[in-house]
Amino acid sequence: MSIIRLNKAAYIHNLTKILDKVGDKNRVILILKDNAYGHGASIISDVASELGFGFCAVKNEIEASEMVNKFSKILILSHIVNGDENSKYIYTINDMDAIKNIKSGTKIHLAIDTLMHRNGIGVDEILTALNLVKKRSLILDGAFTHFRSASELNADYFVQKQNFANAKILIKKWADENGLKTPMFHSHNSAGFERVHKLHDESVRVGMVQFGYTQFDENFDLKPVLSLYAHRLSKRLLRAGQSVGYGAKYTATNDINIATYDLGYADGLFRYDGYKELILANQNKILGTMSMDSFSTLDVGDEVCVFDDARVWAKYFNTIEYEILVKLSKDIRRVWV
């Protein structure tokens, strides 16, 4: 069966590099949503919690339930408010209606809309939101924003930083006036985190950087954690003039030994159409069209490494490594090596 191998030394190396910037595990929020970006939330969280990280963020309550007893703090980012929120979790407030309808007494983080205009409370709504938080007896544990262009070298990043700085001033003042502890703040996602030397007064949300992928800072010295392998289903001699796969997209020019391996687009791989050459790890290449459950290549033995760096596939399919990784099926077994 196909398998995903996770390099534990690489993961620990990446977390160490992150801590070099932050200086404190208590200010690191590990983003483990969407099956930890395809790496396997259960297996990743086991190691992260063993290493002493206590705060993670996930997409919804289903994902959060898998993190209970592993982390002391679990932030849910995309919860649909229903009035029956669980006291074990911290919930993101993504608009004013959420404050009105969430269960009284719930722990929350306010999302602040500083420019992205996707989720969050506008800076001009903060005081109204905070007063409603108090009225509804909600527990304000934190406030954050999300950069829309941290991976692009333009002015948006700096505009949002200033907008969030203004928001922090309002929130700190409100907390002081009400005799409350100043909530934690976090604004830097992975790409934003690459752009700062040190973080002094905020926590950081680390997503893909923990798995070895940077957007532009090659000096960060991170290592990809995930490698994808497929196993041989069958082998044969493909004679000169014979074709393999749907549509006969590959025809041998001389006799070659080929094999069919047990990964296809049903396992979350992008469908290779057999035209422009797609290189696998170790300079192998797919021969012909990818099938639903398999692909063919030169026979290299019982297993073949499909990729050990998702950026290769992302570049080929004109997308980002995030999409390549999150699509990998949860049914593929994941193991530490």
TrEMBL record:
Domain Alanine racemase C-terminal positions: 225-337
InterPro entries per the UniProt record, alphabetical: Ala_racemase, Ala_racemase/Decarboxylase_C, Ala_racemase_C, Ala_racemase_N, Ala_racemase_pyridoxalP-BS, PLP-binding_barrel
EC number(s) stated in the UniProt entry for this protein: 5.1.1.1
Keywords: Isomerase, Pyridoxal phosphate
Listed cofactors: pyridoxal 5'-phosphate
One Gene Ontology term of the molecular function aspect: alanine racemase activity
Lineage, highest ranks first: Bacteria, Pseudomonadati, Campylobacterota, Epsilonproteobacteria, Campylobacterales
This protein's name: Alanine racemase
Domain of life of the native organism: Bacteria
Gene that encodes it: alr
Classification via PANTHER family: ALANINE RACEMASE (PTHR30511), ALANINE RACEMASE, CATABOLIC-RELATED (PTHR30511:SF0)
